[in-house]
Amino acid sequence: MKSFNINGKELPIPSFFQVYNYGGGAGDKCREIVYANLTKDTPALVNYYYINNKYPHTFQSNKLNDISKFNSIGDIFNYVRKSLAEDDKNVYSKYSLPDYDFNQKIFLLDSGSSQIVKYIAKKINYNKESFLTMFYQHMVAYYDFADRYKFDLVVGFDLGGKYTFKDGEADKKLIQFYNSLDKDKINYTILKATVDYLKTKPNYYPKVLATIHGKTPNYYKQYTLKTLELEKSLGYTFWGFALGGIASSKTADESWSNDIDFSKTKKKFVSDAVTPARASYIVHNIVGNRPIHALGGGGYPNILLNSWCGATSFDAASPARRVGDGNALSTNYVFEKDAPKKLNGSEVSFSKFFVGGINADGTLRDESFEYIDLNKLDNKFSLCGCPACKVLKTMTTLKELYASKSSDDEANYFSRQLMNIHAIWQHRFLCQAIAKYSQTEFIKIYGKDNLFSRLLLILKQIKGMV
Ligand SMILES: [Zn+2]
Predict the structure, then answer these.
(1) For a disulfide at 271, which of 78, 217, 267, 298, Cβ 3.0-4.6 Å?
(2) How remote is the CA of residue 366 from the centroid of ligand 1, in Å?
(3) Rounded to the nearest whole angstrom, what is the distance from the C-alpha of residue 55 to the centroid of ligand 1?
(4) pTM to 2 decimals?
Protein backbone atom coordinates (compact mmCIF):
# COMPACT_ATOMS: atom_id res chain seq x y z
CA MET A 1 0.00 0.00 0.00
CA LYS A 2 1.95 3.02 -1.26
CA SER A 3 -0.86 5.49 -1.83
CA PHE A 4 -4.56 6.14 -1.33
CA ASN A 5 -6.82 6.96 -4.22
CA ILE A 6 -9.16 9.75 -3.20
CA ASN A 7 -11.75 10.85 -5.72
CA GLY A 8 -9.39 9.93 -8.55
CA LYS A 9 -6.47 11.81 -6.99
CA GLU A 10 -3.42 10.07 -5.58
CA LEU A 11 -2.38 10.63 -1.97
CA PRO A 12 1.06 9.03 -1.48
CA ILE A 13 1.96 7.41 1.84
CA PRO A 14 3.28 9.35 3.64
CA SER A 15 2.05 12.80 2.59
CA PHE A 16 2.78 16.28 3.87
CA PHE A 17 -0.10 18.80 3.80
CA GLN A 18 0.72 22.48 3.63
CA VAL A 19 -1.60 24.76 5.60
CA TYR A 20 -3.56 27.47 3.82
CA ASN A 21 -4.51 30.26 6.19
CA TYR A 22 -6.12 32.46 3.55
CA GLY A 23 -8.85 34.44 5.33
CA GLY A 24 -6.83 34.25 8.54
CA GLY A 25 -4.09 36.67 7.57
CA ALA A 26 -3.11 39.26 4.97
CA GLY A 27 0.07 39.72 2.88
CA ASP A 28 1.82 36.36 2.71
CA LYS A 29 -1.46 34.42 2.96
CA CYS A 30 -2.64 35.97 -0.32
CA ARG A 31 0.65 35.35 -2.14
CA GLU A 32 0.56 31.73 -0.97
CA ILE A 33 -2.54 31.32 -3.13
CA VAL A 34 -1.08 33.29 -6.05
CA TYR A 35 2.11 31.18 -6.34
CA ALA A 36 0.35 27.85 -5.71
CA ASN A 37 1.48 26.73 -9.17
CA LEU A 38 4.95 26.15 -7.68
CA THR A 39 3.56 23.71 -5.11
CA LYS A 40 1.93 21.64 -7.88
CA ASP A 41 -0.24 18.87 -6.36
CA THR A 42 0.94 19.28 -2.76
CA PRO A 43 -2.15 18.56 -0.64
CA ALA A 44 -3.49 21.39 1.50
CA LEU A 45 -5.28 21.74 4.82
CA VAL A 46 -7.86 24.52 4.93
CA ASN A 47 -9.37 26.05 8.05
CA TYR A 48 -13.19 26.27 7.97
CA TYR A 49 -13.31 29.12 10.48
CA TYR A 50 -11.11 31.29 8.23
CA ILE A 51 -12.80 30.70 4.90
CA ASN A 52 -16.37 30.73 6.16
CA ASN A 53 -17.39 34.35 6.41
CA LYS A 54 -20.31 33.46 8.65
CA TYR A 55 -17.96 33.90 11.58
CA PRO A 56 -16.84 37.53 11.78
CA HIS A 57 -13.07 37.63 12.18
CA THR A 58 -10.05 39.82 11.46
CA PHE A 59 -8.60 39.38 7.94
CA GLN A 60 -11.75 37.77 6.56
CA SER A 61 -11.63 38.09 2.78
CA ASN A 62 -14.46 39.79 0.89
CA LYS A 63 -13.65 37.49 -2.03
CA LEU A 64 -15.27 34.74 0.04
CA ASN A 65 -18.47 36.69 0.73
CA ASP A 66 -20.39 34.94 -2.01
CA ILE A 67 -19.01 31.54 -2.84
CA SER A 68 -22.40 29.93 -3.51
CA LYS A 69 -21.77 30.04 -7.27
CA PHE A 70 -18.84 27.62 -6.99
CA ASN A 71 -18.96 23.84 -7.01
CA SER A 72 -15.68 22.93 -5.34
CA ILE A 73 -13.04 24.32 -3.03
CA GLY A 74 -10.68 24.10 -6.03
CA ASP A 75 -12.98 26.42 -8.02
CA ILE A 76 -13.16 28.84 -5.07
CA PHE A 77 -9.37 29.11 -4.91
CA ASN A 78 -9.12 29.38 -8.72
CA TYR A 79 -11.38 32.43 -8.50
CA VAL A 80 -9.52 33.90 -5.51
CA ARG A 81 -6.13 33.45 -7.24
CA LYS A 82 -7.31 35.12 -10.43
CA SER A 83 -8.74 38.06 -8.51
CA LEU A 84 -5.61 38.43 -6.34
CA ALA A 85 -3.41 38.44 -9.45
CA GLU A 86 -5.54 40.52 -11.80
CA ASP A 87 -7.55 42.87 -9.56
CA ASP A 88 -5.14 43.29 -6.66
CA LYS A 89 -1.92 42.89 -8.67
CA ASN A 90 -0.40 40.65 -6.01
CA VAL A 91 2.23 39.30 -8.41
CA TYR A 92 5.89 40.14 -8.90
CA SER A 93 6.04 42.00 -12.23
CA LYS A 94 9.05 40.06 -13.58
CA TYR A 95 7.49 36.64 -12.96
CA SER A 96 5.08 35.44 -15.60
CA LEU A 97 2.41 33.63 -13.66
CA PRO A 98 1.31 30.37 -15.31
CA ASP A 99 -2.25 29.04 -15.23
CA TYR A 100 -3.02 26.72 -12.37
CA ASP A 101 -5.98 24.57 -11.39
CA PHE A 102 -6.48 24.01 -7.67
CA ASN A 103 -8.74 21.02 -8.39
CA GLN A 104 -5.60 18.87 -8.78
CA LYS A 105 -4.90 19.28 -5.06
CA ILE A 106 -6.30 17.07 -2.34
CA PHE A 107 -8.03 19.36 0.15
CA LEU A 108 -8.51 18.53 3.82
CA LEU A 109 -10.97 20.65 5.81
CA ASP A 110 -10.32 21.24 9.49
CA SER A 111 -12.85 23.08 11.61
CA GLY A 112 -10.73 25.52 13.64
CA SER A 113 -13.26 24.64 16.28
CA SER A 114 -11.58 26.34 19.24
CA GLN A 115 -12.50 29.64 17.55
CA ILE A 116 -16.03 28.35 16.94
CA VAL A 117 -16.36 27.39 20.62
CA LYS A 118 -15.32 30.94 21.59
CA TYR A 119 -17.89 32.35 19.15
CA ILE A 120 -20.71 30.16 20.50
CA ALA A 121 -19.79 30.82 24.14
CA LYS A 122 -20.22 34.55 23.64
CA LYS A 123 -23.41 34.08 21.66
CA ILE A 124 -25.08 32.02 24.41
CA ASN A 125 -23.71 34.31 27.12
CA TYR A 126 -21.65 31.49 28.67
CA ASN A 127 -24.75 29.48 29.49
CA LYS A 128 -23.49 25.90 29.59
CA GLU A 129 -26.97 24.36 29.27
CA SER A 130 -27.55 25.59 25.73
CA PHE A 131 -24.01 24.89 24.51
CA LEU A 132 -24.39 21.37 23.17
CA THR A 133 -27.52 22.13 21.11
CA MET A 134 -25.81 25.04 19.41
CA PHE A 135 -22.50 23.20 19.00
CA TYR A 136 -24.42 20.45 17.23
CA GLN A 137 -25.96 22.96 14.78
CA HIS A 138 -22.48 24.27 13.93
CA MET A 139 -21.32 20.69 13.41
CA VAL A 140 -24.04 20.10 10.83
CA ALA A 141 -23.20 23.37 9.03
CA TYR A 142 -19.53 22.33 8.95
CA TYR A 143 -20.16 18.88 7.47
CA ASP A 144 -22.63 20.35 4.96
CA PHE A 145 -20.00 22.88 3.88
CA ALA A 146 -17.37 20.14 3.35
CA ASP A 147 -19.80 18.20 1.16
CA ARG A 148 -21.14 21.24 -0.73
CA TYR A 149 -17.64 22.34 -1.81
CA LYS A 150 -16.30 18.83 -2.41
CA PHE A 151 -13.45 18.70 0.06
CA ASP A 152 -11.66 15.38 -0.39
CA LEU A 153 -11.17 14.88 3.32
CA VAL A 154 -12.78 16.31 6.43
CA VAL A 155 -11.57 16.19 10.03
CA GLY A 156 -14.26 15.10 12.50
CA PHE A 157 -15.84 18.05 14.33
CA ASP A 158 -14.77 18.39 17.96
CA LEU A 159 -13.97 20.88 20.69
CA GLY A 160 -10.43 21.41 19.44
CA GLY A 161 -7.43 21.75 21.65
CA LYS A 162 -5.73 24.97 20.70
CA TYR A 163 -6.99 27.55 23.16
CA THR A 164 -5.00 30.74 23.39
CA PHE A 165 -6.36 33.13 25.98
CA LYS A 166 -5.28 36.72 26.40
CA ASP A 167 -5.64 38.37 29.75
CA GLY A 168 -8.78 40.36 30.31
CA GLU A 169 -12.28 40.10 31.72
CA ALA A 170 -13.92 38.64 28.61
CA ASP A 171 -11.33 35.89 28.45
CA LYS A 172 -11.63 35.08 32.14
CA LYS A 173 -15.27 34.26 31.55
CA LEU A 174 -14.28 32.18 28.56
CA ILE A 175 -11.62 30.24 30.45
CA GLN A 176 -14.11 29.50 33.22
CA PHE A 177 -16.67 28.40 30.67
CA TYR A 178 -14.22 26.22 28.77
CA ASN A 179 -12.84 24.59 31.91
CA SER A 180 -16.36 23.78 33.08
CA LEU A 181 -17.12 21.72 29.95
CA ASP A 182 -16.87 17.96 30.16
CA LYS A 183 -14.68 17.81 27.06
CA ASP A 184 -14.35 14.03 26.71
CA LYS A 185 -18.09 13.60 27.00
CA ILE A 186 -18.89 16.35 24.50
CA ASN A 187 -16.32 15.08 21.99
CA TYR A 188 -17.71 11.57 22.20
CA THR A 189 -21.31 12.80 21.89
CA ILE A 190 -20.31 14.77 18.79
CA LEU A 191 -18.52 11.75 17.35
CA LYS A 192 -21.72 9.74 17.73
CA ALA A 193 -23.73 12.60 16.22
CA THR A 194 -21.28 12.61 13.32
CA VAL A 195 -22.05 8.97 12.57
CA ASP A 196 -25.80 9.61 12.79
CA TYR A 197 -25.42 12.53 10.38
CA LEU A 198 -23.29 10.53 7.91
CA LYS A 199 -25.70 7.61 7.91
CA THR A 200 -28.36 9.94 6.50
CA LYS A 201 -25.98 10.97 3.68
CA PRO A 202 -25.06 7.90 1.65
CA ASN A 203 -23.55 10.09 -1.11
CA TYR A 204 -21.45 12.22 1.22
CA TYR A 205 -18.46 13.37 -0.87
CA PRO A 206 -15.57 13.83 1.59
CA LYS A 207 -13.81 10.96 3.32
CA VAL A 208 -14.21 11.46 7.06
CA LEU A 209 -11.48 11.19 9.68
CA ALA A 210 -12.60 10.40 13.23
CA THR A 211 -10.68 12.67 15.60
CA ILE A 212 -8.83 10.97 18.44
CA HIS A 213 -8.17 12.77 21.72
CA GLY A 214 -6.50 12.03 25.03
CA LYS A 215 -4.44 13.88 27.56
CA THR A 216 -2.03 11.01 28.17
CA PRO A 217 -0.87 8.01 26.11
CA ASN A 218 -3.23 5.78 28.07
CA TYR A 219 -6.28 8.02 27.50
CA TYR A 220 -5.34 8.13 23.83
CA LYS A 221 -5.45 4.37 23.67
CA GLN A 222 -8.81 4.24 25.49
CA TYR A 223 -10.37 6.83 23.18
CA THR A 224 -9.20 4.91 20.09
CA LEU A 225 -10.72 1.68 21.43
CA LYS A 226 -13.97 3.53 22.18
CA THR A 227 -14.06 4.88 18.64
CA LEU A 228 -13.72 1.39 17.19
CA GLU A 229 -16.49 0.14 19.48
CA LEU A 230 -18.67 2.98 18.26
CA GLU A 231 -18.01 2.00 14.63
CA LYS A 232 -19.06 -1.55 15.42
CA SER A 233 -22.17 -0.73 17.42
CA LEU A 234 -23.47 1.82 14.89
CA GLY A 235 -22.44 -0.16 11.82
CA TYR A 236 -20.41 2.64 10.27
CA THR A 237 -16.76 2.76 9.23
CA PHE A 238 -14.81 6.00 9.17
CA TRP A 239 -12.33 6.34 6.31
CA GLY A 240 -9.53 7.03 8.79
CA PHE A 241 -8.42 8.86 11.92
CA ALA A 242 -7.13 12.32 12.77
CA LEU A 243 -4.83 12.69 15.75
CA GLY A 244 -5.70 15.79 17.79
CA GLY A 245 -3.91 17.64 20.56
CA ILE A 246 -0.44 16.29 19.76
CA ALA A 247 1.06 19.16 17.74
CA SER A 248 2.92 21.01 20.47
CA SER A 249 5.31 19.45 22.95
CA LYS A 250 4.84 22.57 25.09
CA THR A 251 1.14 21.98 25.70
CA ALA A 252 1.27 18.16 25.69
CA ASP A 253 1.10 16.38 29.05
CA GLU A 254 4.60 15.47 30.21
CA SER A 255 3.68 11.79 30.42
CA TRP A 256 4.19 11.65 26.63
CA SER A 257 7.96 12.09 26.98
CA ASN A 258 8.53 11.15 30.63
CA ASP A 259 10.13 7.80 29.92
CA ILE A 260 12.24 8.88 26.96
CA ASP A 261 15.98 9.13 27.49
CA PHE A 262 17.27 12.28 25.77
CA SER A 263 20.82 11.98 27.13
CA LYS A 264 22.24 10.72 23.83
CA THR A 265 20.18 12.87 21.52
CA LYS A 266 19.86 16.40 22.98
CA LYS A 267 16.30 17.67 23.08
CA LYS A 268 16.45 20.14 20.21
CA PHE A 269 13.94 19.14 17.49
CA VAL A 270 13.89 15.56 18.77
CA SER A 271 11.56 16.19 21.73
CA ASP A 272 8.90 17.70 19.42
CA ALA A 273 8.83 14.44 17.49
CA VAL A 274 7.97 12.25 20.47
CA THR A 275 4.29 13.08 21.10
CA PRO A 276 2.97 12.77 17.52
CA ALA A 277 5.05 9.64 16.92
CA ARG A 278 3.80 7.94 20.10
CA ALA A 279 0.21 8.91 19.31
CA SER A 280 0.63 7.50 15.79
CA TYR A 281 2.07 4.28 17.16
CA ILE A 282 -0.70 3.84 19.72
CA VAL A 283 -3.48 4.39 17.17
CA HIS A 284 -1.76 2.37 14.43
CA ASN A 285 -1.40 -0.61 16.75
CA ILE A 286 -5.15 -0.59 17.35
CA VAL A 287 -6.59 0.35 13.93
CA GLY A 288 -3.99 -1.35 11.72
CA ASN A 289 -3.30 -0.14 8.18
CA ARG A 290 -6.00 2.50 8.06
CA PRO A 291 -5.31 6.17 7.21
CA ILE A 292 -3.97 8.24 10.13
CA HIS A 293 -3.46 11.99 9.85
CA ALA A 294 -1.40 13.66 12.61
CA LEU A 295 -2.96 17.13 12.94
CA GLY A 296 -0.26 19.81 13.09
CA GLY A 297 2.29 16.99 13.46
CA GLY A 298 4.13 17.48 10.16
CA GLY A 299 7.04 19.66 11.24
CA TYR A 300 10.24 18.43 9.55
CA PRO A 301 11.68 16.65 12.62
CA ASN A 302 8.39 14.77 13.11
CA ILE A 303 8.00 13.24 9.67
CA LEU A 304 10.35 10.27 9.87
CA LEU A 305 9.10 8.92 13.20
CA ASN A 306 5.43 9.65 12.45
CA SER A 307 5.67 7.65 9.24
CA TRP A 308 7.52 4.74 10.79
CA CYS A 309 5.03 4.74 13.65
CA GLY A 310 2.04 4.41 11.34
CA ALA A 311 0.87 7.93 10.43
CA THR A 312 0.04 8.18 6.73
CA SER A 313 -0.13 11.99 6.54
CA PHE A 314 0.44 15.16 8.57
CA ASP A 315 0.40 18.91 8.19
CA ALA A 316 2.43 21.83 9.51
CA ALA A 317 2.37 25.59 9.16
CA SER A 318 6.05 25.97 10.08
CA PRO A 319 7.36 26.69 6.54
CA ALA A 320 5.05 29.72 6.31
CA ARG A 321 5.64 30.73 9.94
CA ARG A 322 9.43 30.82 9.63
CA VAL A 323 9.06 33.10 6.61
CA GLY A 324 6.65 35.21 8.66
CA ASP A 325 9.46 35.86 11.16
CA GLY A 326 10.94 38.39 8.72
CA ASN A 327 10.10 42.09 9.11
CA ALA A 328 10.55 45.14 6.88
CA LEU A 329 13.58 46.43 8.78
CA SER A 330 15.55 43.26 8.04
CA THR A 331 15.29 43.80 4.28
CA ASN A 332 18.00 46.50 4.50
CA TYR A 333 20.54 44.10 6.00
CA VAL A 334 20.07 40.80 4.18
CA PHE A 335 23.56 40.98 2.64
CA GLU A 336 25.18 41.52 6.06
CA LYS A 337 26.02 38.39 8.04
CA ASP A 338 26.52 40.52 11.15
CA ALA A 339 23.34 42.55 10.82
CA PRO A 340 22.25 44.48 13.93
CA LYS A 341 19.76 42.65 16.15
CA LYS A 342 18.06 45.89 17.11
CA LEU A 343 17.91 49.35 15.59
CA ASN A 344 16.69 52.35 17.61
CA GLY A 345 14.75 49.95 19.82
CA SER A 346 13.13 48.07 16.92
CA GLU A 347 13.94 44.45 16.27
CA VAL A 348 15.66 43.43 13.04
CA SER A 349 14.09 40.05 12.32
CA PHE A 350 14.82 37.94 9.23
CA SER A 351 12.76 35.37 7.38
CA LYS A 352 14.30 31.93 7.85
CA PHE A 353 15.46 29.63 5.08
CA PHE A 354 15.13 25.86 5.38
CA VAL A 355 18.62 24.35 5.40
CA GLY A 356 19.56 20.67 5.23
CA GLY A 357 17.27 17.91 4.03
CA ILE A 358 17.41 16.11 0.70
CA ASN A 359 18.11 17.48 -2.80
CA ALA A 360 15.61 17.13 -5.64
CA ASP A 361 17.81 14.34 -7.06
CA GLY A 362 17.43 12.36 -3.81
CA THR A 363 20.94 12.95 -2.45
CA LEU A 364 21.44 13.93 1.18
CA ARG A 365 22.55 17.53 1.72
CA ASP A 366 25.65 18.34 3.73
CA GLU A 367 24.05 20.71 6.25
CA SER A 368 21.99 19.47 9.16
CA PHE A 369 18.32 20.50 9.26
CA GLU A 370 17.61 24.00 10.58
CA TYR A 371 15.71 27.16 9.70
CA ILE A 372 18.42 29.85 9.39
CA ASP A 373 18.13 33.65 9.16
CA LEU A 374 18.45 34.52 5.48
CA ASN A 375 21.35 36.96 6.05
CA LYS A 376 23.46 34.21 7.66
CA LEU A 377 23.59 32.18 4.45
CA ASP A 378 26.48 32.48 2.04
CA ASN A 379 25.64 34.06 -1.32
CA LYS A 380 27.10 30.93 -2.93
CA PHE A 381 24.85 28.59 -0.90
CA SER A 382 23.80 25.72 -3.18
CA LEU A 383 20.05 25.41 -3.76
CA CYS A 384 18.11 22.12 -3.67
CA GLY A 385 16.61 21.91 -7.15
CA CYS A 386 12.95 22.14 -6.06
CA PRO A 387 10.52 24.19 -8.20
CA ALA A 388 11.16 27.32 -6.08
CA CYS A 389 14.95 26.94 -6.20
CA LYS A 390 14.73 26.40 -9.98
CA VAL A 391 13.06 29.81 -10.32
CA LEU A 392 15.75 31.40 -8.14
CA LYS A 393 18.89 29.75 -9.58
CA THR A 394 21.10 31.52 -6.99
CA MET A 395 20.96 32.55 -3.33
CA THR A 396 21.99 36.06 -4.39
CA THR A 397 18.78 36.37 -6.44
CA LEU A 398 16.74 35.41 -3.38
CA LYS A 399 18.48 38.02 -1.24
CA GLU A 400 18.08 40.68 -3.94
CA LEU A 401 14.34 40.03 -4.12
CA TYR A 402 14.11 40.11 -0.32
CA ALA A 403 16.06 43.39 -0.21
CA SER A 404 13.74 45.10 -2.72
CA LYS A 405 10.97 45.76 -0.21
CA SER A 406 11.16 49.58 -0.18
CA SER A 407 11.17 49.89 -3.98
CA ASP A 408 9.10 46.82 -4.95
CA ASP A 409 6.92 45.23 -2.29
CA GLU A 410 5.88 42.39 -4.60
CA ALA A 411 9.51 41.35 -5.16
CA ASN A 412 9.87 40.92 -1.40
CA TYR A 413 6.60 38.97 -1.13
CA PHE A 414 7.81 36.74 -3.98
CA SER A 415 11.08 36.01 -2.15
CA ARG A 416 9.13 35.05 0.96
CA GLN A 417 6.89 32.66 -0.97
CA LEU A 418 9.88 31.07 -2.69
CA MET A 419 11.37 30.38 0.75
CA ASN A 420 8.04 28.97 1.95
CA ILE A 421 7.65 26.77 -1.12
CA HIS A 422 11.27 25.54 -0.91
CA ALA A 423 10.61 24.41 2.69
CA ILE A 424 7.35 22.72 1.64
CA TRP A 425 9.22 20.77 -1.08
CA GLN A 426 11.80 19.71 1.48
CA HIS A 427 8.99 18.16 3.53
CA ARG A 428 7.76 16.44 0.37
CA PHE A 429 11.22 15.17 -0.65
CA LEU A 430 11.57 13.53 2.76
CA CYS A 431 8.14 11.90 2.39
CA GLN A 432 9.14 10.65 -1.06
CA ALA A 433 12.35 9.12 0.29
CA ILE A 434 10.43 7.40 3.09
CA ALA A 435 7.95 5.99 0.58
CA LYS A 436 10.68 4.84 -1.80
CA TYR A 437 12.96 2.97 0.62
CA SER A 438 12.54 0.35 3.31
CA GLN A 439 13.65 1.41 6.78
CA THR A 440 16.96 -0.42 6.39
CA GLU A 441 17.63 1.16 3.00
CA PHE A 442 16.67 4.59 4.29
CA ILE A 443 19.09 4.32 7.21
CA LYS A 444 21.84 3.16 4.84
CA ILE A 445 21.36 6.14 2.53
CA TYR A 446 20.39 8.91 4.95
CA GLY A 447 21.24 7.56 8.41
CA LYS A 448 24.44 9.56 8.77
CA ASP A 449 22.37 12.75 8.91
CA ASN A 450 22.56 14.35 12.33
CA LEU A 451 18.81 14.71 12.85
CA PHE A 452 17.81 11.33 11.42
CA SER A 453 20.41 9.44 13.46
CA ARG A 454 19.16 11.05 16.69
CA LEU A 455 15.54 10.32 15.77
CA LEU A 456 16.37 6.66 15.26
CA LEU A 457 17.48 6.40 18.89
CA ILE A 458 14.08 7.75 19.95
CA LEU A 459 12.18 5.46 17.59
CA LYS A 460 13.58 2.37 19.29
CA GLN A 461 12.35 3.64 22.65
CA ILE A 462 8.85 4.48 21.43
CA LYS A 463 8.45 1.07 19.86
CA GLY A 464 9.53 -0.53 23.10
CA MET A 465 6.87 1.27 25.11
CA VAL A 466 3.41 0.39 23.92
ZN1 LIG B 1 14.52 24.27 -2.88
Answers:
(1) 267
(2) 14
(3) 37
(4) 0.96
